[in-house]
Fold this protein.
Amino acid sequence: MKRLHLMRVVWVALALSANGWAQVDFAREVQPILRKNCLACHGPGMQQSGFRLDDGTAALKGGYSGAAIIPGDAKSSPLMRRVRGDQGLPAMPPGEKRLKPEELAVLERWIAAGASFPAKAPGLTSAVPRVNSKHWAFQPVQRPALPEIAGGRNAVDKFVLARLAKEKIAASPEADRRVLLRRVSFDLIGLPPTAAETEEFLRDTRPDAYERQVDRLLASPHFGEKWARHWLDQARYADSDGYEKDWSRPWAWRWRNWVIDSINTDMPFDRFTTEQIAGDLLPNAKAEQHVATGFHRNTLTNREGGIDDRQFRFEATLDRASTVSSVWLGLTMGCAQCHDHKYDPISQKDFYSLFAFFDNVEEVNIDAPLAGEFGPWIRSQNEYQRKRDALLAEYNVAALQADWEKNILYTIAHLGERTDWDLAWDCVNKLTEDGDGGKIVQIPSAKRTPRERDILTDHFVANYHFAIGNKKWKELKLDELNKKLRELKTQYPQLSQAYVISEVASPKSSFLRVRGDYKTNGIEVQPETPAVLPALNASGRATRVDLARWLTASENPLTARVAVNRIWQELFGAGLARTTDDFGTRSEAPTHPELLDWLAAEFRENGWSRKALIRLIVTSATYRQSSQARPELTEKDPNNTLLAKQTRLRLPGEAIRDNALRVSGLLTPTIGGPSFNPPIPPGVMELSYGSRGWGTGWKEATGPERYRRGLYIQFLRTTPYPLLANFDVPKSTVAACRRDRSNTPLQALNLLNDPVFLEAAQALAVKVLIDAPSSFEARAEAAYQAALSRKPTAAEQTRLQTYFEKQKTLLADDAKAIDQLAPVTLPTATRLETAVWTALASVILNLDEFITRE
Amino acid sequence: MSHPKDCQGSQQAPLKRRDVLRQASTGFGLTALASLMADKAYAGLAGGGTHFAPKAKNVIFCFMPGGMSHVDTFDPKPKLAELNGKKFDGFYQVGAKAETNRQWLGSPWQFKQHGQSGVWVSDLFPHIATCVDEMAVVRSMVSGFPLHPRGNLLMHTGRNTGGFPSLGSWVNYALGSENKNLPGYVLLHAGAVPPGGLENFSNGFLPATHQATAMHAEGKPVINIDAADKDPKIQRAKLDTLLQQDRQFLASIGQDDGIDAAIKNYEMAYTMQSVVPDVLDLDKESAATKKLYGVDDAERHKRNYSRQCLRARRLVEAGVRFVEITCPEVFGGDNGTWDQHSDLKKGHEGNALITDQGVAALIQDLKSRGMLGETLVVWATEFGRTPHAPKPDARDHHETAFTVWMAGGGMKGGTVYGATDEVGMKAVENVTEVHDLHATILYALGLDHKKLTYRFGGRDVSLTDVHGHVVRELLA
């Protein structure tokens, strides 16, 4: 200890005495310190935070936070502060090891003397060397030759059978035809076959009877619904903002419509990609191509007072970049927000280079009328505007608003002066409905579009109280006007709106953010793709269009593999590479790598047709196998990675409800359109913070839309619909690339006691009692055919009959229960019988077989 | 530690149970099955492993949403009283703007030392003050966000965005439930949850079984708990038929975990319908206990809160791992109970009145039943309130210093940990992040916050992300 102290004195004395600073011998004094302490992370092999100390040019250039060494000024050099640990940050190098005082002094002298590196130090030609990786997913996709093996129906089977042969395992036989039709029906359109469809298939003896069913299903408009849901999961689609107020997004569905339509028309996946990532930038972009960019409007929106707009914008941009990475590349680049990726060769700079593609994006709402909307709107606009103007004049809005605008503009220039007006200005930014109020108010009123004009006036009327207080606002009767304006709007046809993005007029430079903090700019970055992947060739500054083209370019090793793997997962319950959400270096290698590559190549070379790919897979013998358990496989291949059989899968949450509605005849099959509110258990909405005062609440649908498919259930981020939450529907905050299938008694309670399922049981009972011959057997058979596509076995029949008799006795004197279970009086059955049939239908709708695709 | 995929919520059940169930489906009757279900703990991390010896088994999390003022409750600042009314010349920023014209505000309440440990508590909490010898008070909490939803989400899920599993879900995922007829994670509320909504109590990407089950203080406690079939005999008959059909089907297709799990779910759901109302029934408690908590208080909100406290004890007693009690929004409005940007005195006094007796009774009651050692009671909020204000009788959001405390569950009673500067502006000594609090709570439960992970989105995700350290000074 004492010696150390002495040493320090000596060094300080030396430093002081050396007026003009003695020359430092880099090779003898400095380099060993750097080599020992720094180069492992900031050297040739790795450049943490973009900083390297083995090369003069690069070292002086600095890292992500900018220059680290200021030659001649040791005191201001961030390097010295970092090795001392006096910047409020942990000292470098990380861990227990500290530089010794004498080492610190050497570095200090060296920097003070100009921080010279030896002249022969190799210079770098590029700050970002392309990175090499041997990881399987980063290698180019090459179509492998088909294995030579007998059997199977198509290419898929060759790969699977070859692997099974190696393991000396036989494939399973084809599933029973009823099971098969049911399976492919759920997988392609998310709904079970009707009894008639099953009948028809069973009667069809042509060799391609199954393929014909597949083609029928691929052509069904419900195909787009089922596969849209798969895409919506990844796109983190929701009908509300999230965060504090969780405002509903009444037009979010417009983008969902686009997805359904695009999938139904089998839009090639490369175009599907380009339009969503950059539809607005395409030459002569059509309305629908703008609508496609709604993909990026699924980010969360924070309308909370007090939050810094810049932070929220930054986070939305981060989310856009990391979502694109997760969805198309299967890479978790979000990790690189704060630092270089721990496992994958993705640097922080890589991430912010992807971020830069979205940094100049602006959120815009546009008119996006559906077919048939335009005419009625045009016919009524003049009258609507006349009435609106009359109302505004009646309440003297023009003068009041002019004064308010003057004050807002003054406030923008004098923040912090008047608290109430600060709040009013904050609200213009956060609470303007259907547009960016903060931007509009700063456009001279003569230059505003009619749409902008109306948006701002609506905001003013509804929110003037933030500036002048509730009392005065009410005295001016603006609360009344607010109501009248909203009412008026509902009386006239409105055009559907869409949430889209566009590029700002004057783009700004993008910067890496040091430690992911939006306030701390690091080095400037250009839009660029990760260095470990093939380079992007753009002329000039790369745009989102370039990014989209790069994603679907034939050199890109990830996009096709990732997409194919996720489609496979939908059809088998697990991907060929099990980590469908991660193709990075920690991913699991595919079980059938050649098959994955063959399918990826096929997908890409066959016009990126989703339908063709799905058709290929579902017509394979592999897909058509029975899912029957095989004891020998349970030992050898418990997770069915070898695909010697199909897999039983519980239906997703939406499909469970759809299934009950479909078999009971309640389903309203309308495709597309706004979300709806099914009955929600009492007490749920009051727990929704956003529903109080701000949100839309939950107006239960009573018309036919009440029985629409689960895909259209309004998804409020802070209050997910219980059925969906209970059955593992993703939370819509980040991209979800696979769904879990968990088990909780809440699921059973849901199916047993939820009103929707009671209604379905009633409807199924009524249907059976009206349609089927009046014997118990015939009715039970009809119910089973409708719900399970099969007849009950003799044992099942007996058990159902016993149950029927028992319930009949139990219910006989329970008038209240009969009333509850039998909603109508039928000519074909007594009320008691109807009630018992409802109970029996409820048993069927709760069977595991009912909610499972075999 | 085995792979998280084997946890009890997933369809891959441990082999042993599967074997037993297979037997059950062919031989045993329902009774055997039912008794099997009611059997002892199904552990979460396959086999019920903790990482090391636990001190606590259960957590009762009393959350004070809105931002409870630290300088008015557990962190006395005499200097602030001196400065009262003087101009605040510091920098106070809301959003992108700085606010001028603020003044220091001394606490309107008196502080006294209590118990043998002499821990300071303000007059707001006469009942809680009697429990200080059981409490470990952390005065040096910090949070990155002066905003309610983000602060709440951070305090509950370790992230400020939503979509991540909450502390209670992690605990259940790790430890499983001790009672198969009750959910392992219960949210006791009286019609209000903090900003951030149900995302605060979400299972995130963990299996849905780990989500909080909300129970209401008034009326029907749980959604769908009311059997559609009013007569239990009718429902039982339905279930018997249903499960017989399922089992026969199971036999026809060979072994399948999914069906096993479904059968189990139905049995548990059936039992829950009767067990839940039973556990929540306070008439099973003595008059003295009811009086201790104040469950019959004339004031509705206090009555509800006290009922929730007593129910929390009953739930924990019945084997529920994690119970959260939320506050009614009486004074704070939409942004949370303790959010007094004005009417500080009225608001904080009212909120203290509602919560004080129930929470103190909970600690005393747990102690007298010998349950305090294994039950960790946490009193937390999302941030503190400013020692300065734009007007008298008001305080704003303050994320650079606030107080939480914990009692029981292996905590060192009578402890004060960390300190703020002399005016309560900033935590300056032993600065404690929310991640540290989480790490410490997990530690008390025998869990290593770095090892408790779930693979999602290509990463092994944990509650504390890359942060957090265990505050050993708080532990006995």
Q: What stands out?
A: DSSP finds 37 helices and six strands in chain A. The two ends of chain A are 75 Å apart (CA to CA). The beta strands of chain A are 361-367, 497-503, 510-513, 521-525, 649-650, 852-853.
